[in-house]
Design goal:
By secondary structure, this protein is α/β, with parallel strands linked by helices. 49% of the residues lie in helices and 14% in strands. The strands form two sheets. The protein has an eight-stranded parallel beta barrel, surrounded by seven helices. The protein has a two-stranded antiparallel sheet with strand order 4-5. Bound molecules: 1,3-dihydroxyacetonephosphate (13P). 1,3-dihydroxyacetonephosphate binds at residues 22, 138, 177, 260-262, 290-293.
């Protein structure tokens, strides 16, 4: 493992004022997003949409890395330029989602396990040759009656650690993403408790697998109330609880923490990051690695029409700038209007 090279990539991803765009929706997930805006989901419409976002001038200003889906990393823009080269030209590091989604965990009563390890050692060199210098693997945990089980916490942590070790062996910085879903009626306390448990197990497995924490990035959920819970924790409470659980369960050696948005409103995702940056109690650089909270607005603005490309690009630039300011603790609600 070339740890110095991994550390340099991780540091570039965590550059002050920049964050990560997760544009790695699977074909199924992006179809759900396109259904909302009435756009037919084809390889061409996915390409056209992503090309607009990747060519946005905001990329060079606010985005350090973009997580791509397998289809996208091999795709070319309308003029024949590989989409990953458009990012490279803007100084943005291409990354790749390498997990293959989830399936039911046997005897899991609703728990899921993330797939994709079997051929990973053969796939990573191909992605590296195409320019990818970081990767993502997402483990998903739902809070419910008896969920998550110990087996789900353990099996997913083990898979994350095997993935992360393989990435580092191939010169790729792993983004390690254990996501506690915010769907459901659980309290903010329950989210905090399960987040602590999942993080603890993940770092134990990372240790056993020999993963260098200095050469990886953690992508956690924030500690929020379940969407259907009667009481919703406020922004200051979310920031405090999230940093409390991370400080207690994620080693300071980790190169950076880049949050997922998880279905929060665009403004909540930004406000929570800003509140955490202002607390100044994190031992790691903090930033965003959002999909929905960066892309819902441009997708609505685009609506599948080429003549809306500039509006979509502007909508993306606005969210990217808001989140860049938030990562520095310099955002305020008034800036949203401008
Ligand atoms: P969201 O920001 O929409 O949660 O997506 C981030 C991500 O990459 C999930 O794996």
């Amino acid at each position: 493992m070339d740890l110095e090279a991994l550390k340099a990539i991780a540091a570039a991803l965590m550059a002050p004022g920049k964050g990560i765009l997760a544009a790695d929706e699977s074909a199924t997930t992006i179809k759900r997003r396109f259904d909302l805006i009435g756009v037919e989901c084809t390889a061409e419409s996915r390409r056209d949409y992503r090309e607009i976002i990747f060519r946005s001038p905001a990329m060079a200003d606010f985005i350090s890395g973009v997580i791509l889906y397998d289809e996208t990393i091999w795709q070319e823009a309308a003029d024949g330029t590989p989409l990953s080269s458009i990012l490279g030209a803007a100084g943005v590091i291409p990354g790749i989602k390498v997990d293959e989604g989830t399936e039911a965990l046997p005897n899991g009563n609703g728990d899921v396990i993330t797939k994709g390890l079997d051929h990973l050692s053969r796939r990573l060199p191909k992605y590296h040759a195409r320019g990818a210098r970081f990767a993502k693997w997402r483990a998903v945990y739902e809070i419910g009656a008896g969920l998550p089980s110990h087996n789900a916490i353990h099996a997913n942590a083990h898979a994350l650690a095997r993935y992360a070790a393989l990435c580092q062996a191939h010169g790729i910085v792993p983004i390690v993403e254990p996501e506690i879903l915010m769907d459901g009626g659980h309290s903010v306390e329950a989210c905090q408790e399960v987040s602590a448990w999942a993080l603890d197990e993940v770092f134990r497995e990372l240790y056993f697998a020999g993963v260098a924490l200095e050469g990886m990035i953690l992508k956690p959920n924030m500690v929020v109330s379940g969407r259907k819970h009667g009481v919703q924790a406020g922004r200051a409470e979310v920031a405090e609880r999230t940093l409390a659980v991370l400080r207690a369960h994620a080693p300071a050696a980790v190169a950076g923490v880049a949050f997922l948005s998880g279905g929060q409103s665009d403004e909540d995702a930004t406000a929570h990051l800003d509140a955490m940056a202002r607390l100044k109690t994190a031992p790691w650089p903090l930033t965003f690695s959002y999909s929905r909270a960066l892309q819902a607005a441009p997708q609505r603005a685009w609506a599948g029409r080429p003549e809306n490309a500039a509006a979509a690009s502007a909508a993306f630039a606005h969210r990217a700038r808001m989140n860049s300011l938030a990562s520095l603790g310099q955002w305020s609600p008034e800036l949203e209007a401008g």
